[in-house]
Each structure stands twice: as C-alpha cells, then as structure tokens.
# Entry
Amino acid sequence: AAGVIQSPRHLIKEKRETATLKCYPIPRHDTVYWYQQGPGQDPQFLISFYEKMQSDKGSIPDRFSAQQFSDYHSELNMSSLELGDSALYFCASSPSPRLEQYFGPGTRLTVT
Amino acid sequence: AQTVTQSQPEMSVQEAETVTLSCTYDTSESDYYLFWYKQPPSRQMILVIRQEAYKQQNATENRFSVNFQKAAKSFSLKISDSQLGDAAMYFCALRGGGSEKLVFGKGTKLTVNP
# Structure
C-alpha cells in the first residue's frame, strides 16, 4: 500500500539558513499534518491543512510557514534556523472523515 | 486543555507473554478519539489501534487490544503473545473532536526479551 512520502529524509543546515521540507500524502487523502519530534520527546503538532486551507495550528514558530498545494502535497518552510530546530519532522495524512493519521518516515533536520 | 499521561517510562516482557501499557488522559470534550502508536528504532510512527469515545466496545486488532474505561479516563493497551518485533516506543495519543491535532503522551519503551 502507498504510504506518505517525505523528502528529503535527512537535511543538514547551518544556523540562520532556511529549509524546505516536502510531504506527499497517501493518494486520496485530503488532510495533511506536520509534527516536530525533538530528541527523546513526543511528537508536537505544528499545523494542519484540509483541502488546501489551514485547518488547525499548534506550537509552530513564526519563523515557520506551511501550505498545501492543489495536488495535496504540502511544504513546510523554515527560516532563520536555530540549533533548537534540530528534530525529526513528521508529516501525516488522513482521508475524510479524518479519523486516523498515517505518518510518513520523517525528515531528520540537523542544524549546526 | 487536553493531556495524556503514560506513567511507565519503560516496560519489559518475555517473548510469547502478555503485557499491558497504561495511559490516562484528560479532556473536556465529549467527542474524542484515542490511539496507540508504535515507534520502532527506525523512528517510523505506526498506528496500532484506534478507539472512538462513543463506542463502549473495546477495540481489537489481532494481538493488540485496549481496555477503555471512559469514566476513569483510562486507555490501556494489551499486547498478547509478544514478539521480538513488538519492541518499540509506544505512544498513547488523544484527538478531541473539535481539533485536528494529536496530543501524545511521553511514551513507554517496551523491551521484549527472548
């Protein structure tokens, strides 16, 4: 079965640089979610999109922005990166009626 | 605010035995969903089981079952016939009916001993 695709899988950036993470949901899933998991932590919800509109917002820094495109893929843009942004970033997708969230393999971001 | 508490940071079980992971939660919503996710060393988050709050019947998926006690706000996961591949971090998660986000507990690391 098709799964959520995230790219890149690994990313190394320096402080103050920008990064763009991409997420391709499972076919026919119309909702995308972004989570951040720091080392030894539980995942924290950042933001979600349903039918290309922001549907919920969590603890996403102002330096981060995201959007969902017409083909339902989503991008998380991160600017002015800080050391504390080093984490595993998950994208998840869900079909309507949005009961379950299926996670991608994650993008490991390291900020040096 | 919604909170999820997993009071067991680590658990261990012998292969083929049964183990129960505990989870308690708090929410003011009447409509909500509870989940258990498994995160093996690969760090992939894998959905194990889902429970709707309005359903009295406990969810079951093969060797995995839950004990949902709504009044006590308790949602434990039972793994029967434990296998080496069950070794992972297990996260309990809550989603309120009016929200998109999953709120996770801190996780329980399960070790399966051969």
Remarks:
- Chain B has a mean pLDDT of 95.
- Chain B has no helices and twelve strands.
- The two ends of chain B are 41 Å apart (CA to CA).
